[in-house]
Amino acid sequence: MMTNTVLAAIAIVTLLTLAYRRSGIAAAALSAAVLSAASALLTGFGPLTWLLTALFIVCLPFAIPTLRRRFLSKPTLSIMKRLLPPLSETEKEAIDAGNVWWDGELFSGKPDWQRLLSADKPSISEEEQAFIDGPVTELCRMVDKWRINHQLNRLPEPIVDYVRDHGFLGMIIPKRYGGLEFSPVAQSEILLRLSNTGSGVSYLVGVPNSLGPGELLIKYGTDAQREYYLPRLASGKEIPCFALTGPTAGSDATSIPDTGTVCMGEWEGEEVIGMRLNFSKRYITLSSIATLVGLAFRLKDPDGLIGDTKDYGITCALIPHDAKGLQIGRRHLPVGDVFLNGPLQGKDVFVPLSFIIGGPEMAGKGWRMLVNCLSVGRAVTLPTTAVAVSKRSLLGTSAYASLRQQFGVSIAQFEGIQKPLARIAGLSYIIDASRLQTIQSIVEGNKPSVPSAILKYHTTEMARQCIIDAMDIHAGKAVVKGPKNYIADMYESMPVAITVEGANILTRNLMIFGQGATRSHPYVMQEMTLAHAEETPEVIARFDATLAAHIGHTISNFARMLVMGLGLSREAAATEKRHLLPYYRHFNRLSSLFAVITDVALLNLNARLKFREMLSARLGDLLSMLFLGSMVIKQHEESRQADEEWPLAQWALDHLLYQYQIAFDQLLENWPNRFVPLVLKRLAFPLGGRFTAPKDSLEKAIVGLVTVDSSTRADLTSGLYLEAGANNPLAEVNQVFLESLLLQPILKRVKAALRAGELTPPEDGDLAGAALSAALVTEHEAEQLRRFDRHLMAVIHVDDFDESELVRTPYHEQDDRKQITG
User: Fold this and answer.
1) Active site residues per annotation
2) Is 403 in the same domain as 473?
3) 328 within 8 A of 297, measured Cβ to Cβ
4) Is residue 470 a contact partner of residue 414, using CB atoms and an 8 Å limit?
5) 573 and 501 share one domain
6) By the 8 A CB rule, do 460 and 123 touch?
7) Which residues form the domain of 421?
8) Does 538 share its domain with 509?
9) pLDDT level of residue 818 (50, 70, 90 thresholds)
């Protein structure tokens, strides 16, 4: 009996070790044979021997390529060919967009941390810093956000002219064309600084430097197009917009009904081959002031003037703003900050074929161009918008909560305030870490399409939570609009970031896991490509090798998940920060679990998974929590004051692990059968270990860091425009907060005297004068207290207006009565 038990233990340990180390099916078959023989010799032909013999018999055919191809790979390939729907060229281009970065490591189940940790720390050049300190700061000084949003309802011409004249529209354009050629990190830092002026100015600068004519021309334009347009875009002679979305094609942009028909027509007095364009677009940023329109449409050639193809598909072209038949200039009025956005239409607009970006040979390749550019731009502009919201929320809320008193104490001391304030700080840390590390990957040559979708969704949703918490803590101060309010416009503008560049509902439910499972999985895309190929001996051989590797990948991750779940593995990245070791192990383990559940979902649900959006969303959440947690770890590894900021990093990691746990539980609770959840739950958490939300004590520690003038608070809120001035109420409340910290010794002395009855609050409210009379403070200290009190009341008070100031256009009460009475 003892021998059987020992042999069984040896067998389990051996096979688990082989699977854990991904030693291959041949090694498993050999080990099963040796163990079976040992069992027969030592214990006879009992159950253990027969079990090991059966395992050897099962493994043997898989270890012999010719047998495996005949009995497994070829039938599997045939089944896949029947089950897989045909992959359209549009779908294939979307899947192929960008490249695989850290997302691929997470899908592998065995992330190579050294690959992430060896990347350079994000930085900017001296030239880029000088631009931020000079033109960017000057632009910020020029902006009166209240006047723009609530009086003008437009961007003043001097601001637009300054942006054009100082090269803001050419940050991505190479220097040889007159552009600034700034790095993505610098672009993000510039947009972050501009965020204090409102999203109107940041979108004016950000959109031309994201997906649009500039980027498309740099990557796909002809030499002649680049030589002509890029210098004009860099100098601001041309203001671009890009028109993709229409009334019937929003998130499903591939179904655009806008057409371009190849035909003969007149252009500048000559008869040329061109395109007759008919389109209706909306939600187009900068369309009202654009001089150059990038247009996406479906190109058709019914008469075969340029080839045999009748329908080329989505194509991108450049249209001058004065083209005959183009209707442009009207505006939408988005919620929140004023920014230039509007519709445009075209009726029989004729332009030469050479206006196609990249020339006629790029006809029909527009969707590939767009999704490749989006994989980069989406990782910069919107995450920067999100981090601006979170940083501004944190700076203003931590300052205001420290200054505002109720019941004689700062509201920052109330636990009901501390929890949302800590959440703002923790989420800000996650957003900023993810933004910086992902943008740095772009600097190093990556085009992270799946990570950009993760960032688009999660950073904007986290920013939305930050601004909601900031509103709650500020209460009435944030509800009343006016020049003193630094919260309301952000709150109102948040839906814009949630909606643009792939609405968040679509991004979470369809894109993150839907694209990731094919693009980032180490084997699925190869298998799909081979399944759509003609079945030849070479294709079968390649499919066989891929399938065998995939099976080994799945078995290995099952073993890794179980071994790490039992606490039998100490696998972690090499780090000097010992407090990170448990988190490396957690993320290794959960990466293996994610890899397993991905393969189980693909096998169990196959093509149905595409339509099970709620399950796909939760699978995407698992991937996202792993990705965001990895970015937090990388950020903390690079921190200059890791010990001081550890409470923030710990909160972020604990929060993300807890959100992973919630998504995992909800996924299994809603799985279409009960067998898979039963098995996975037991194997994933064999010891019942569960992750929990960040502890109250940790959140108190975080509040302690952000309600003093700490280096952690400075880092968390770095990059904001905080120059004192009449148009910067956020800087004003922060200055008063810093002033209060300097006066704490005096304030504490006066409050102690009040509590002890040594000082009575004066009827005239001049507490400083009363303290001076009682010899508690010097004359200089009394003047400091009076000045502080004036500053404090200035930031505590809200705005009020005369009725006439609130009426934008004249009206007559008699007309109103007529409308009411009908």
Assistant:
1) 501
2) yes
3) no
4) no
5) no
6) no
7) 98-121+380-516
8) no
9) very low
Query: Residue 806 domain-assigned?
Result: yes
Residue corresponding to tokens 């917009």:
241
CA distance 521 to 620: 13
The DSSP bridge partners found for residue 595 are none
**Residue 115 CA from chain centroid, whole number:** 21
> What are residue 317's DSSP bridge partners?
295, 356
- Amino acid identity of residue 573, one-letter, is A
Phi/psi at 212 (5° precision)? 175, -170
Q: What secondary structure does DSSP assign to 189-246, as a single string? A: HHHHHHGGG-HHHHHHHHGGGSTTHHHHHHHH--HHHHHHHHHHHHHTSS-EEEE--B
Taking each helix axis from N to C terminus, what angle separates 25-43 and 537-565, rounded to the nearest 10 degrees? 60
- Residue 611 covered by a domain: yes
Last residue within a domain, chosen from 471, 501, 516: 516
- Domain count for the chain, please give it: 5
Domain co-membership, 492 together with 571:
no
Are 339 and 288 contacting, i.e. CB atoms less than 8 angstroms apart? no
The pLDDT score that the predictor gives to residue 821 is 44
- Can you read off the two tokens belonging to residue 129? 């810093």
Mean pLDDT, residues 6-18 taken together: 78
Read off the pLDDT of residues 584-611 as tens digits, 9 standing for 90 and up: 999 999 999 999 999 999 988 877 787 8
Distance CA 19, CA 558 (A): 8
The answer to whether position 713 is within a domain reads no
- Tokens 């050419």, located at residue: 170
Q: Are residues 660 and 759 in the same domain?
A: no
Q: If you ran DSSP here, which 8-state letter would residue 672 be given?
A: S
The pTM for the full model equals: 0.93
Domain identity same for 36 and 50: yes
One domain for residues 198 and 49: no
Percentages helix, strand, coil for the chain, rounded to the nearest 5? 65, 10, 25
Residue 232 and residue 140 share a domain: yes
632, two tokens: 């937090």
Q: Rounded distance, CA 433 to CA 77, Å? A: 42
- CA triple 143-147-148, angle to 5 deg: 65
Output b/e per residue, 450-479; b: 16+ Cβ within 10 A. Answer: bbbbbbbbbbbbbbbbbbbbbbebbeebbe
In a domain, 73, yes or no: no
Q: What value does the mean pLDDT take over residues 271-280?
A: 97
733: CB partners within 8 A, 6+ apart: 396, 399, 400, 403, 486, 795
